[in-house]
TrEMBL record:
One of its GO terms (molecular function) is metal ion binding. The active site is at C33 (proton acceptor), H78 (charge relay system), E122 (charge relay system). GO terms for biological process: tRNA queuosine(34) biosynthetic process. Pathway: Purine metabolism; 7-cyano-7-deazaguanine biosynthesis. Pfam families: PTPS. It comes from the Bacteria. Its EC number is 4.-.-.-. Zn(2+) binds at H14, H37, H39. Belongs to the PTPS family. QueD subfamily. This is 6-carboxy-5,6,7,8-tetrahydropterin synthase. Binds 1 zinc ion per subunit.
């Protein structure tokens, strides 16, 4: 089994804030991230599979890139996640929640069983990895 990864970049703003908490509680939990700010995110989409003897590939990376652009980048690039993206209206756009939303958006667009792992970098120091196994 082989793992193949497509890396993509996008920019979003967000606020880490729960509506049901007051300003003080939000600041205690999320610190400065409870204020509106932005990140240059990097998303790595890893697909798994066996080599196709005819093409020599698992899946064409251009196909993966088109799906990532269509399902994620074109939807959220240069948006405010909290106010512009319904998935985050009632869900704090932490790295954890973002990567789980992205998984759902991508899994149904990629060939069945190929999505292996998502890695989302918020900064060069902070990243989340998600896999269902
Ligand atoms: Ni942030």
């Amino acid at each position: 089994m082989l793992l193949l990864t497509k890396k993509t970049r996008f920019c979003c703003s967000h606020t880490l804030r729960k509506k049901e908490w007051n300003d003080q509680k939000n600041f205690e939990v999320f610190g400065q991230c409870s204020n509106l700010h932005g990140h240059n995110y990097i998303l790595e989409v890893t697909v798994r599979g066996d080599i196709n003897d005819e093409s020599g590939m698992i899946i064409n990376l251009n196909t993966v890139g088109k799906i990532v652009n269509e399902k994620i980048v074109n939807v959220i690039d240069h948006t405010n996640l909290n106010t512009d993206i319904p998935a985050f209206t009632d869900r704090v756009p932490t790295l954890e929640n973002m990567v789980m939303v992205f998984w759902d958006w991508l899994e149904q667009a990629l060939p069945p069983g190929t999505l292996a792992k998502l890695t989302l970098y918020e900064t060069e120091n902070n990243k989340i990895e998600y896999t269902k196994e």
